[in-house]
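Dear Dr. H.,

I hope your travels went smoothly. While you were away I took the liberty of generating a structure for the chain from your last submission, since the lab meeting agenda had it listed for discussion. I wanted you to have the full record in hand beforehand rather than looking at slides cold. The sequence, exactly as received, is reproduced here:
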Amino acid sequence: MNKFIFVIFFMTFNVNSSPRIPLTFQVSSSITRDVLDYKITSVDFSPKSIFLEYDKEIETFVSAELLLEVKTNIPADEGGDNFTYSLSMIKNEIECVNQYDEIIKATPPDLILNDLTLELNTPVLSLSFDDETDNYLSDKNTVILMFHRLDKSISSCSGNVSVEVGVDV
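The corresponding predicted structure, in token form, is as follows:
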């Protein structure tokens, strides 16, 4: 039994004490100017503005569905499998007031895209272009706004949501 422990210790010692040998290799890629000119041409939420109903029983606004449409200048015949895009929520603000016109702190809504809750300034990577518009790659997704419980004294709220979208290279 002592020999077995010694052998294991010796093997572990040898593995950890072996000299590190650096491995260097050349990586290159080629990106054509055409690909660099490909870009997102429009990003639209539909509807652009929403009026929400307040549900007194659950003390929050009813969830809302928006359509997010992303359009590009990438020809559809280039293939949707060759290109992806990233989306990042860069602003999510809410401001509420009570019946005395005092500003009340409230938690902004969660935005849910493809069953994923978007986090502020954290990109969702490698989204696919699953559609085409006028022979160019595009994509349409449903975004759900999920609101949190609000203070009972709130009489109205307004907010802003902004996203940033870019073609992955």
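Two observations you may find useful: The domain at 32-167 is CATH 2.60.40 (Immunoglobulin-like). The chain has one domain: 32-167.

With kind regards,
E. W.
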